[in-house]
Amino acid sequence: MSKFHELDSILRNQDFDETESDYDFVVAYAKSLAMIEQSIVIVSDLRNRFNRIFAGRFADELGIKCCLTEDTIWEKEILGLMTEDEREEKFLAELRFLHYLRQHPKKQRGNLYLISRLRFKAQSGKTVNVQHRMYYIHDEHSDSVRFAVCIYEPLVAELPCCGMAVNSVTGIKEELTTTADNSILSKREKQVLALIDNGKTSNEIAASLCISRNTVSRHRQEILAKLQVKNSVEACHRAKSLHII
Questions:
Q1: Does residue 137 sit in the same domain as residue 235?
Q2: In terms of domains, do 132 and 208 share one?
Q3: Do residues 121 and 200 share a domain?
């Protein structure tokens, strides 16, 4: 499964809060930001499955239309400017960032955003280095991501293509590499998942690790929650794709 399909599956299969959202506020913010910074700002409504593109003058360099609405959460106008490898790197960074957020208390997640370097092919044929910032806005009463706000602007400083998580309050940043992926699960959870991947039953895992069957069950539930999957097969697949096991 590609990184795109993994990320799309996670975002699409969330349990969304049905209460009134802050969509108008988010759109007003995106529109103002595009005008002030001359950047390209995209708001993706993950529950209703569409996005809106607000384009400042930087869009002229790339040939992006202003105030375009697309019937998908994925900005096709932007993705079409990237190579397949670049798109996979982008999706991998966003997948890692989503897992990174899950490691933090909900009240702290709004402080964190993703920043990374991308390369676009402009209408003129030249390659343009682009800085990408992404913010996930969560439902007020659930853990679901309600909106994604992406900002595309000219690259002004070198950034890792793998992406960095940045805390906008403290300024602390962390590269989202395989090392960061490995911190998603505890050492014991990795041991349990590796044994699950080897076809071991809960009783066999308990005997192998000298723990109770109830403890194994608790580890299973924690693994599913942290990896945001529904069963052990999906957990093993996702853990391998992120190089956790």
A1: no
A2: no
A3: no
If asked whether residues 79 and 94 sit together in one domain, one would say yes
Domain end marker among 152, 177, 202:
177
For 43-85, write each residue's pLDDT tens digit.
999 999 999 999 999 999 888 877 788 899 998 889 999 999 8
Residue-wise pLDDT tens digits, 137-187: 988 777 789 999 999 999 988 887 778 999 999 999 988 876 656 667 888
Please give the residue range of the domain that contains residue 9: 3-177
54: β partners: 41
Contacts of 12 (CB under 8 A, 6+ apart): 46, 49
Q: Could you tell me if 126 and 215 lie in one domain?
A: no
Say whether pLDDT at 129 is over 90: yes
Of residues 32 and 10, more confidence is placed in 32
91 and 151 belong to one structural domain: yes
